[in-house]
Amino acid sequence: MYAQMVQSTGKGVKRLEEMSPQERAFQARIDAGEKIEPKDWMPEGYRKTLIRQISQHAHSEVVGQLPEGNWITRAPTLERKAILLAKVQDEAGHGLYLYAAAETLGVSRADLIDDLLMGRAKYSSIFNYPTLNWADIGAVGWLVDGAAIVNQVALQRTSYGPYSRAMIRICKEESFHARQGYDLMMKMAAGTKAQKAMAQDALNRLWWPALMMFGPPDKDSVHSAQSMAWKIKVMSNDEGRQRFVDQTIPQIEYLGLEVPDKAARLNPETGHYEFTDPDWDEFFAVINGDGPCNADRMRARNKAHDDGAWFRDGLMAHASKQIAAE
Ligand code: 3HC
Predict the structure, then answer these.
(1) Cα separation of 324 and 137, whole Å?
(2) What is the CA(145)–ligand 1 centre distance, in A?
(3) pLDDT at residue 52 above 80?
(4) In the chain, which ranges are E strands?
(5) Which of 26, 115, 141, 283 places its Cα 20 to 30 Å from the Cα of 192?
(6) Packing angle of the helix pair 44-63, 78-103 (nearest 10 deg)
């Protein structure tokens, strides 16, 4: 499959004849479906690509706590508050698994977090959009975690062992996240006229940013070809987006809401929905720091980090005392 890909695209992929014997042996392991473990030899590019992708993913989990965390105090019932608290807490756990997976590649969590706080690292574009009403909390769980699952289910098969194992665990929790979001949307869509309008409004605003989560179109994707040859990615950006649209439009119809994309239609021959692309100029603006909430998110993360300094200092002091006592 890899050789085929090299022949068919050649885009950004190191060709077999350009590889050293060690790189060829590594590629053969990947092609045979073996998992790569931290102490195994790996090309520097493989290691760097993994650090980039896993750390961006970890940052997304942590920054992703912010739009929902804002609503914990305003959840309308005790049950909804408990669910939201559990979900937001899960996201912190996901960040932790992912930072730990990245650390197996020889980087430190402190440095990765520093990159995030200094604005040097990316995190998912979706979290630079605001959550304006309670229905947004349902739409985030359903659409954002739903999109994340499409990607992450595929990533369970990624070639790097620690990343793959983190994904298996994360996917189980993400399923609960998406389910609770859809449950909230069902309540809103079946509620009063005003509640249904809130659900529709949330869907209209989050639909396009959810499509952007899968990354730029394949033709503009910088890393896909090499990442797929290394099986760091096992699905292209466009494939993921199509899967998401195919699974979500019937769910919108079941809710009795309108699909925000008026041109979307099922192609009976392919069995897939045809749909309109999101605004890619907006996407590139958002990932380059100019989205509706980028500055707010960075301020909030930096404040949380600064506010937690006393706790980290306490942990370090305790650890030093323990070492001194040994
Ligand atoms: N948001 C922000 N940046 C994005 C992006 C997005 N939605 N999509 C692409 N980019 C960035 C890439 O990181 C890359 O930037 P870089 O070169 O500066 O690192 C650039 O745009 C080019 O895009 P590519 O298609 O070449 O990038 P990738 O091959 O890395 O593909 C991806 C992008 C599909 C998002 C891939 O990185 C991936 O699968 N990542 C792991 C999954 C992930 O990060 N998910 C986050 C979702 S949110 C989440 O899980 C939280 C949960 O609680 C809901």
Answers:
(1) 48
(2) 14
(3) yes
(4) 265-267, 272-274
(5) 141
(6) 160
Asked if the model's pLDDT at residue 210 lies above 90, the reply is yes
Mean pLDDT of 121-137: 97
Nearest CA to ligand 1 atom 41: 57
- One-letter amino acid at 72 equals I
Q: Of 220, 267, 223, 221, which is closest to residue 245 (Cα–Cα)?
A: 267
Question: Distance from the CA of 111 to the center of ligand 1, in angstroms?
Answer: 20
Ligand 1 neighbours (beta carbon < 6 A): 52-53, 56-57, 60-61, 64, 91, 122, 124-125, 144-145, 148, 151, 212-216, 221-224, 227, 233, 237, 287
pLDDT, tens only, 147-167 = 999 999 999 999 999 999 999
Closest residue CA from atom 36 of ligand 1: 53
pLDDT tens for each residue of 54-104? 999 999 999 999 999 999 999 999 999 999 999 999 999 999 999 999 999
Termini Cα distance of the chain: 55
Return the pLDDT at 12: 73
**Measured distance CA(175)–CA(177) in Å, rounded:** 5
Q: Which atom of ligand 1 is nearest to the CA of 213?
A: 7
Residues recorded for the chain:
326
Q: What is the DSSP string of 192-240?
A: -HHHHHHHHHHHHHHHHHHHHTT-S-GGG-SSHHHHHHTTS--S-HHHH
Please tell me what DSSP assigns to residue 120.
-
Task: Tell me what the pLDDT averaged over the chain comes to.
Answer: 94
